[in-house]
Amino acid sequence: MRYNRVHIVLFLAPILIIVLVLCGMIAWTGAVSMDNWVGMAPVWQFNGLQNYATLFRMERFWSALQNNLIWMVAFIIPSAALGLLLAYGLTLSGRAESLFRPLFLYPLALSFVVTGTLWAWLYDPDAGVINNILKSVGLGDLGQPWISSPRQATFCLIGAAIWQYTGFAMTLYLAAIRDIPSEIFEAAKVDGASDIQIFRHVVVPNVTQATLVTIAMLTVFTLKVFDLVWVITFGGPGTSTEVLGFFMYVATYRQAFIGLGAAISVIILILAIAVVVPYAWWSMKRLQT
Amino acid sequence: MYRNKALAIFTAVVVLSLVLAACAPPTPEKVEVTKIVEVTKEVPVQVVVTPTPKPEAKELTVYHWWTAGGERQAMDVIFKHFNAANPDIKIVDNPIPGGGGIALKTVMQGMLAAKMPPDTFQSLSGSELKMYVDGGFLEPIDDIWAANNCDTKYPAVIGKMVTFNGKKYGMPMNAHRANWLFYNVKLFNELGLKPPTDVDELIAAAKTIKEKKPDVYPIGLGSRDKWTAIFLFDVVLLSEGGPDVYEKFYTGQLDAATDPTIKAAMEKYAALVPYLYPYHGAKIWSDIPPLLGEGKIGMYVLGDFSAAQLVQAGYKEGTDWEAVAFPQKPEEVFLMIVDTFTRPVGIKHPDANKAWLNNLADPDTQAEFNIIKGSIAIHADVPATTYPDDLHRRASAAFKGKRIVPASAHGALAPQAFLSDWQDILTRFLYAPDVTRLQSETAQVMKTYDVAKNSEWYWAK
Questions:
Q1: Does B33 have pLDDT greater than 50?
Q2: Do residue A235 and residue B424 have CB atoms under 8 angstroms apart?
Q3: pLDDT at position B56, please?
Q4: Domain count, chain B
Q5: Are residues B206 and B298 in the same domain?
Q6: In CATH, what number is assigned to the domain containing residue B197?
Q7: Percentage of chain B with pLDDT > 70?
Q8: Which whole number is the average pLDDT over B84-100?
Q9: With contacts defined as CB-CB under 8 Å, which chain A residues touch B228?
Q10: Position B356 in a domain
Q11: So where are chain A's domains?
Q12: What is the Cβ-side half-sphere exposure of residue B235, based on CA atoms within 13 angstroms?
């Protein structure tokens, strides 16, 4: 059967409508971000880039942005690295793979609210699991204030996110390792390479594609992270764990600074584009070659 | 090929026509009745009779945040009374979980902006209610207010909290008292301590507990919620400055950077920090009462709603825990949080809304509701003896006898935008108590959000 124009219209219409609605909403957010809209009812009063200027003067904005950047470094690299190690480990484990794979993937199936509640219990410095385990094995001195310390809290959140997302990176890497022709592994083995050497010289250079995808996806996740922060620390202690997404929610819905909130959304969008587009472009170029 | 094309076109046409049919407005039901009317000249006249339109099904869409244990049952009491008086109106219940209505506010923002208002929704009175009024989303309810004699049956300050531009915009029906100091009775007896009556005594009691019982944390707090930090500051401010300073501070009449009383209150607040439960940043308000029951903490300051947590955990009032109004010096006040229901603009069932608001003003509904909710009725006809527990009997007596001051937390007094920043500033302060910085940050946000101008409603005659 050949496809004709009617088919094209029928099949493309839904996606076109979705894209149009999405673009419309982005344009609307962009317009609101340049308005002096404060309060619940719309105020269409153009004020240029005033909202952005206000944001850039706010210490809170910079601390939220800084937290997003901490997330990028402290979350993406460990998640991707652990994912790759697990994927290679599973490949080596033979039959046990079918047992372990769902186990590592399981956290991904949980909602962020469930993960958040779970980790809030684990991290509770007084009655929490981690400190109590340390106490019971005689290492009570190593107990930490965890989420009640402004310095540690962001890293605690990142720990929970790594737990949830390592399985995701692992799946991508597992597929990439499967794609490596088995002859390469066999040749390496014949040459007497150890598992570690194979990992270093065969696996790592051959999973660059998967790394690109993983890093791009995890970056987008770090830019829109909200739920975990909301559930585990509510941005606190003080504002120490606030990220841009959280700040946007507070500005828009709790303080009714709709224009300012929209400006934060636009900044998140620009950051996402700035990170994802070069990656996508680079990976497309590599794919073509 | 042609068959395929024809099939595709046919499918498209069918789908399109279905979509159009679904979008089309419903055709009004019209029945033509032909009747022969005899007149003297015997001329047949055709009369077209259009039947009266079918009345729209009577219902009432309610949005509220009373979903937690106790609250839900309390809401059901209102429904029960409403249904008894209005058996023909069906209630469409939309509970949105989230303490203090934080999630409901987000939902309402969307629904009201989309011009899809529910028949009534919950709001706190004061500056939160003002947000909806300023947006032009609410209609006055002066008719209900007058019909129920609310001016004589409710304290004047309650009316003030729902009055904007000279009109009433919300129907209140309960009051929570925010200024209770809960303490562990066994610990206080063991150490020979008396319940503190002002902040200096609070600090002294905390010091004694810390010295004599190093494994007990003197003052409990759950600052993961953040607003609890405001509760604690509020009683310190009331103790240092009294109710007049309190009202002036939260309505932007004082300069936080220079006012000596505000500075003194901030210093006292800082003096409490060493005695606080050290992991407060990891706990929410409801985690704290059980810790008091267990004897892990000595005291905490919260509203009467926290008593339910102690009772549910099996701790007995009088023997395990006790609560006193705090502060009692320089003046004991009733620091109040009030819930109201509203009448949005453009609702589908105005009669149902009217019946709903009237039901809320009914003293019997209020009495039964408040016993379960853990707050007190605001209607003068509900006596203090209504409540089964001592705490609420005392609250009701204080409500009738003491000065009532609107609580700042949750947005009754100061504007929402300010409070959101204020609770962040206070929680940050608990980790790095720097009074000079607190003074300048407070003055700055008061200026940024123009608290003085946004609180003019409170001082309007």
A1: no
A2: yes
A3: 60
A4: 2
A5: yes
A6: 3.40.190.10
A7: 88
A8: 90
A9: none
A10: yes
A11: 50-288
A12: 30
Both tokens of A229, joined, read 């922060």
Q: Is the pLDDT of residue B15 over 50?
A: no
Q: Which residues pair with B361 in a beta bridge?
A: none
Q: Are residues B194 and B322 in the same domain?
A: yes
pLDDT at B23 over 70: no
Query: Per CATH, which fold does A50-288 belong to?
Result: MetI-like fold (1.10.3720)
What's the pLDDT band for A283 if we cut at 50, 70, 90?
Answer: confident
Helix (H, G, I), strand (E, B) or coil at B91: strand
A113 contact residues in B (CB cutoff 8 A): none
pLDDT for the residue numbered B220 = 97
Least confident of B43-52, B64-73, B244-253, B290-299: B43-52
Domain annotation covers residue B49: no
Residue B42, in any domain of the structure: no
Give the pair of three-digit tokens for residue A249: 């929610």
- By Cβ distance, the residue of B11, B136, B427 closest to A41 is B136
Q: Which residues of B touch A147 (CB under 8 A)?
A: 281-282
Q: State whether B254 and B387 are in the same domain.
A: no
Residues B305 and B445 in one domain: yes
State which residues form the domain around B294. Answer: 180-335+410-459
User: What pLDDT was estimated at residue A229?
Assistant: 95
A28 and chain B in contact, CB less than 8 A? no
Same domain, B307 and B195: yes
Contact assessment for residue A153 and residue A239, using Cβ atoms and an 8 Å cutoff? no
The ipTM is 0.86
B163-164 and B167-168: which strand pairing? antiparallel
Considering only alpha carbons, which residue of chain A is nearest residue B282? A148
Q: Is the pLDDT of residue B423 over 70?
A: yes
Inside any domain, residue B255: yes
pLDDT, tens only, A232-244: 999 989 899 999 9
Rounded to whole angstroms, the Cα distance separating B139 from B121 reads: 12
Residue of A nearest to B106 (CA): A253
**pLDDT tens digits, residue range B204-251?**
999 999 999 999 999 999 999 899 999 999 999 999 999 999 999 999
B393 & B419 share domain: no
